[in-house]
Amino acid sequence: xxxxxxxxxxxxxxxxxxxxxxxxxxxxxxxxxxxxxxxxxxxxxxxxxxxxxxxxxxxxxxxxxxxxxxxxxxxxxxxxxxxxxxxxxxxxxxxxxxxxxxxxxxxxxxxxxxxxxxxxxxxxxxxxxxxxxxxxxxxxxxxxxxxxxxxxxxxxxxxxxxxxxxxxxxxxxxxxxxxxxxxxxxxxxxxxxxxxxxxxxxxxxxxxxxxxxxxxxxxxxxxxxxxxxxxxxxxxxxxxxxxxxxxxxxxxxxxxxxxxxxxxxxxxxxxxxxxxxxxxxxxxxxxxxxxxxxxxxxxxxxxxxxxxxxxxxx
Length: 314
Fold this sequence. Notes:
Distance between the termini: 54 Å
Number of domains: 2
CATH topology of the largest domain: Rossmann fold
Order of helices and strands: EHEEHEHHEHEHEHEEHHEH
Number of helices: 10
CATH class of the largest domain: Alpha Beta
Oligomer: single chain
CATH architecture of the largest domain: 3-Layer(aba) Sandwich
Helix content: 25-40%
Largest sheet: 7 strands, mixed
Radius of gyration: 20 Å
Strand order of the largest sheet: 6-5-4-1-3-2-7
Strand content: 15-25%
């Protein structure tokens, strides 16, 4: 009896902000490994999700959105995104098809036009690096086939794509076909992670990311792109529970009451939702304590970048 050899490799998922990279990564893994919100640039550093298909292990590198950077944090995130492609066995460029169609049909909003600029910059980056990618048109739900084909043709003619897939990361449409293609691209070799591991993310960092997700879900419209969460204490208790202390940083004093809410109700909601999800993910009781601090320069502090694997010196 012949034992089928194992396969393992890396697939980098790149794209403009809000293209759906984290949703796709979570869908392929079959578990939540990246936080997902309506807010652009939710993912700030590469997150590795581990997807299994038969004898094949695919390490999916969910990268920050690629866009025109303005601040130090922006530059670090974009650099990290491109860095995720360097050693990948295959690259998937995820594109928001709905935004592209809106431009082609004259119905584009400002965010659609920004997305087109970011998509074209990624095409230029792939060309400059001499890399070829799979084009995955996402958010195809409700779009006419002829409009999708027009988008595919425009991008395919750039010469940086080997093939195109039309998918909906949210519903799963077309994702199985993309998964089968990724499996074929993985080289023979031993798995990098145990079969039951879904992500390569330290528990302290996972806890901070989940709390940051809940902040954006609750105060998306009111709080600008200026909040960070640091896990300052992660204590394993003798009774099996975990005691976690976190600090939420905002840049201005006026943002502090937004996170706190009236009588602290917003912060209480954030803590409750984060604690519930952490309890489920960690499989044990979690005691979570949150503090809100104002630090207008948190995004310029070297220690923040090292904690999440970003390069401060960019």
